[in-house]
Amino acid sequence: MAPSAKRNNTWALLGASPAGKGVVLFSLLLAVMIGFTNGAGSLFNVLVTGGMWALLAVGLALVFGVMNIPTFAHGESFMVGAYVGFYVFNPMQNYLLDHPNPTLMLLAPLLACLGATLAGAVLGVLTERLAVAPLRRRTKEGWIMNTFLLTAGISFIMINGATIVMGANFKGIPRYYDFHPVEILGIRMSVDRLVALGIAVLIIAALVWFMKWTRTGRAIRAVSQDEMGAQMVGINLNFIHTLTYALATAMAAAAGAALLFMFQAYPTVGHDPNYYAWFVIMLVGFGNIYGAVVGGFIVALLQAATQTYIGIQWADVVPTAVMILILILVPSGIFGSVVKGVHEQS
Amino acid sequence: MLKLENVESGYDFLQVLWDVSFHVDKGEFVALIGPNGAGKTTTLRTIAGMLKPRAGSVLFKDRNIAGVPAYKISRSGISYVSEELNLFTNMTVRENLLMGAYYVPDKRKQHETLDFTYRIFPRLKEREDQLAGTMSGGERKMLAIARGVMANPELLLVDEPSLGLAPNTTMGVFEALLELRKTGVTILLVEQNVHLTLDVTDRAYVIESGRIVMSGASKEMKQDPHVQSAYLGI
Fold first, then answer.
1. Chain B residues whose beta carbon lies within 8 Å of the beta carbon of residue A229
2. What does R_g of chain A's alpha carbons equal in angstroms?
3. What domain count does chain B have?
4. Is B21 an interface residue toward A (CB < 8 Å)?
5. What is the Cα B116 distance to its own chain's centre?
6. For residue A62, is it within any domain?
7. N or C: which end of chain A has fewer CB within 10 A?
């Protein structure tokens, strides 16, 4: 009888191999070291960045796990979120300069994020219905390569479309909240970052609750394990596919808006976030959602550690090198890939 | 209840069914037997909506369901238990069963059906919290059939339940099907194990090369010389 026949602890939930446990423990050690070197404030920043990578990576894991699509247009959802956040927040901010209103001041950034999330969802529905579903109807052969190319093409169109429509200028805001940094447990935290972290935690928690406790969430999990089985129990595949894709794009857009104060909005803003989200996925294993959450923080730690101990110029090099090592040594990711169900007879 | 009329069906590149007509009446336990590649699985898949027939009609309770998407057919009283089982391997037995009742709206009804299912398949209750992917072949088949039952179907389509199973386990599966039949479920069974099939079913059809070549009461079919030489090795 297989030892992991029953799921009953967090390690198993993550699917952690010995490599996985090692990496997590190493990361915790790294976090402590950075905390001592740079002060606890830098750990807070790692938390914020980690939360954002987690948000992006979870969407990626979802789309790959359920639809088997390695989407490279994920960064563009981030970009759309950033733009929508800007265009929702900016007019409100201008209005507030002449008509100060405490409630609106508190709500405006949240409304910007909400608007971005909705826009992201609409973008996801449109993309899936117009580009992905027709491909699925036509053929399942070469699916991974086809969808990779498809999403790369969508990314290309969106970046250039944004450049044409919006212009290549950076559209940014200095800050969302005009408050002094808050001090909690002796750590100074900028309110913007605190709110961004809060949004990330909220969205991820809501998604986990949704996947675990709702009927539709269970349906999504079923589709990710066996599509034909899902049809056999009466699940509408098309609906689930559209929903999953829209969830992923909505989450990425939310991240884009939440981090507007950090990243600003411009056509290629999604490039780095996409890259790091993919790095998280390759690190933890494809389709593994819980792993993606943890992985987001690990990658953020890695970035911070590189900046602290090696130098900011190496900020991209070291994570890339680590990714290459992972692909060579533990290709299914440190937390194990979650692949679709195995068939009885092929 | 179920009536196929001159159905032609197949896959993109290959037509498998050339002229399939048969019927299953309410409460019957009917078998579809034939050699490998004859089109047994294709027939079930066509009824279940996984395949769209090129010609002919599939009448369920006098309504033509040919071409209706699979998930809608699952929701309208036909449960399909595939040869590959298509279980949710990362979910427990209980979770798989509850997923079978996905389209049953009432939580209480779901649990009533669960209790009923556990009575027919007691082994599944013992392994309630076990991951489906870690169970033995026979248990997985039981689970697949049980999951189909969870939807309270009027018609149950079962594809080769005995394949790969030891004789004892096969008996267990067939006994469970007979139990189900007693509760009023109509069953269409596709099988290669002709011997046992003709013992438990009411009627049988023989399909060869995509056409129905013989039909009759199972007891009589067992005595038929063609069936005996081709399928019973007599």
1. 85-88
2. 20
3. 1
4. no
5. 19
6. yes
7. C
The CATH number assigned to the domain holding A73 equals 1.10.3470
Which chain B residues touch A221 with a CB distance below 8 Å?
88, 90-91
**Interval B182-229: pLDDT, tens:** 989 999 999 888 888 999 999 999 999 999 999 999 888 888 888 888
Q: Which two tokens stand for residue A298?
A: 């690990």
User: Which parts of chain A are beta strand (E)?
Assistant: 182-184, 187-189
Q: Is B48 on the interface with A (CB under 8 A)?
A: yes
Residue A117 belongs to some domain of the structure: yes
Chain B residue with CA closest to A346: the answer is B84
Q: B70: nearest CA in chain A?
A: A231
Q: Which of A6, A226, A231 sits opposite B88 (nearest CB)?
A: A226
Q: What is the ipTM of this complex?
A: 0.89
Which residue's entry shows tokens 């699916």? A143
Identify the DSSP state of B134. G
* Contacting residues of A for B45, CB less than 8 Å apart: none
> Between the CA of residue B199 and those of B115, B178, B186, what are the distances in Å?
29, 11, 17
Question: DSSP labels for A84-143?
Answer: HHHHHHHHHHHHHHHS--HHHHHHHHHHHHHHHHHHHHHHHHHHIIIIIHHHHHH--TTH
Q: For residue A333, which amino acid is it?
A: G
Residue of B nearest to A2 (CA): B134
Nearest Cα to Cα of residue B53 among B45, B61, A185, A284 = B45
pLDDT of B53-89, one tens digit each? 999 999 999 899 998 999 999 999 999 999 998 999 8
